[in-house]
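Batch queue: ligand-bound targets. Current item pairs a single chain with pyridoxal-5'-phosphate. No template structures supplied; prediction is de novo from sequence plus SMILES. Inputs echoed for audit trail.
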Amino acid sequence: MSFVHSINLSLFEEKSTHKGSFELDIYRGDLEHPNAPGNKWHKLQYHLKAAKKQNASVIATFGGPFSNHLHAFGMTLRILPFKAVAVVRGELQPKLTPTLKDMVENGVELWPSSRSDYRLGMSSQIVNEINEHYGNVYWIPEGGGGALGAMGCHDWANYINAIDDKYDAWVVSSGTGTTAAGLLSNINTPDLHVFSALKGEPAQRRLILDLASKLAAESMSKESLNAKLFFHADCHEGGYAKHSPALKSFISKFARANPNYPLDPVYTSKSMFAVIQAMQNGCWPYKRTLFIHTGGLQGWRGFSKDTNPFTYS
Ligand SMILES: *Cc1c(COP(=O)(O)O)cnc(C)c1O
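Prediction returned. Tokens below.
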């Protein structure tokens, strides 16, 4: 199976004076690992190694009721010899979300947490309770973040480069910025354009740079990392998981031209919208671009069916 496909831009180029100037390919991270596609699987890899090293029998993590991270966590751990525990933000509704239903089916134990306690993270009451209940628990931060999460994405860049290392730029979506930091830290990664799915996160650029610099250690100076990092904080289209009318219309147009390349509703649809707009406006300075699909298609289950125009099931 090929993981790199070329995006059909014809519908977006009709009125553009830049017709044919750009080649936009997509790395189909959404097709990797049938059960746990996208960046979250990569972010888990070093955490799993650390859990083994700690001799933990239980691995626990955090997430919301539609979380891609929780979903990948459940799907990855179901075949591993750890007990999986998830702290879920907010009250559990009697009717579980599709994401949480999958978790239960995969044997993940759900511990609902009030929003106020959840916000305390590792200092929360529920973390204490779980530690007391199980003893040696390995904790994965929300979203699979931290340096270990980023290291998995550093490795991911090697897989991607092994397929084709002649791109002028890569594009990736960000939430915590962990994935972007890992990719950036790889010496073979070209200019990296990072599009944030969150509102009001311009300060995240610094976090990505610091984490990438820690990971790259001696292999690259902070200056050279800084020079290839482009962070975009203004493409959230109203905020996390929000859809502006312009974004909705973009998603349906993109799906008409590329029905087999589904974008997810929270991250990749927004970054794809932003890149194609930049191309239309003539402010995209690259010829060959690779868009890294970070997965997240299961997230559509948190949206009403008529908002999803893609033909995947
Ligand atoms: C979690 C997620 C991201 C963001 O990853 P970070 O490492 O938190 O920046 C991007 N895309 C998708 C589809 C995700 O699920």
